[in-house]
Amino acid sequence: MGAYSPGSTVVCPHCQVTVQLLGERLKGILITPHHILGEAAASRDGYRLDSSVCPNCRQVVIAIEQVSLDQERDDYEAAWERLLVPPAAERRIPLETPAHIAKDYREAAQVLPASPKASAALSRRCLQAVLREQGFARQSTLSEQIEAVLPDLPTYIAEQVDAIRVIGNFAAHPIKDSRSGEIVGVEPGEAEWNLDVLDLLFDFYYVGPARAEAKREALNAKLIAAGKQPMR
Q1: Euclidean distance between CA atoms 197 and 132, whole angstroms
Q2: What is the number of domains present in the chain?
Q3: For the segment 98-140, what is each residue's pLDDT rounded down to a tens digit?
Q4: The whole model's pTM is what?
Q5: Mean pLDDT value across residues 218-232
Q6: How far apart are CA 118 and CA 61, in angstroms?
Q7: Which domain holds residue 15?
Q8: Which of 4, 63, 89, 228 is the most exposed place for a label (fewest CB within 10 A)?
Q9: CB 37 within 8 A of CB 22
Q10: How many Å separate Cα 94 from the centre of its chain?
Q11: CA gap 64, 81 in Å, rounded
């Protein structure tokens, strides 16, 4: 059963809410040479199209799986799965994120289903932009920038950021500022991981400080209304 099959519990690619998709698994459309040509077909491998509905936003989710017949189990096993509707899972970008950084992030998410390598290149460039603007522009490679920023991050974020360097094997292909968008090979799941880590950094660098400033302003307003000195 695919990740987006009816009955699966997933984060809805439309509304980003964790749900159990609605629909009937048996209504999935199986497309193989055998189903079209019958016994004359040379192969029973093919594709399966699953459609379901999110119970939260009521939007349709359609995914395609490449499948092959398991002779012993007399059932089909999926090799890979790709979203068709929506073409890529929506990823929410905080409003506090600078526009030029949000643009690279959004493009990295949009091209992920078609090219994980292109997505990873865009997300790495996005990461470098974040680190440069946080004061790590002197380091010449992304690996060095990551090493420099780790002591400034909470442990739970630092470990995730460092994993980008480890999983990406930057020692094999050091990514310099001048080649931050370089297309290099990626490990399975690496492109998605990059985007997940950027989510953490957006919250740490942009959302958290903005919320703290809003709370400070609200507190100062109360202090002034009470005839007291505001916080510096």
Answers
A1: 16
A2: 2
A3: 999 999 998 998 888 788 888 988 999 999 999 999 999 888 8
A4: 0.63
A5: 77
A6: 24
A7: 9-85
A8: 228
A9: no
A10: 14
A11: 6
d(CA 143, CA 158): 13
* Within a domain: 168: yes
As a whole number of Å, the end-to-end CA separation of the chain is 57
Domain identity same for 112 and 156: yes
Measure the CA–CA gap between 7 and 55, rounded to whole angstroms: 11
Q: Are the C-beta atoms of 12 and 56 separated by less than 8 Å?
A: yes
Instruction: Label residue 229 exposed, middle or buried (CB < 10 Å: 0-12, 13-18, 19+).
Output: exposed
Question: Quick one: 120 and 15 in the same domain?
Answer: no
Considering only CA atoms, give the Rg of the chain: 23
47 in a structural domain: yes
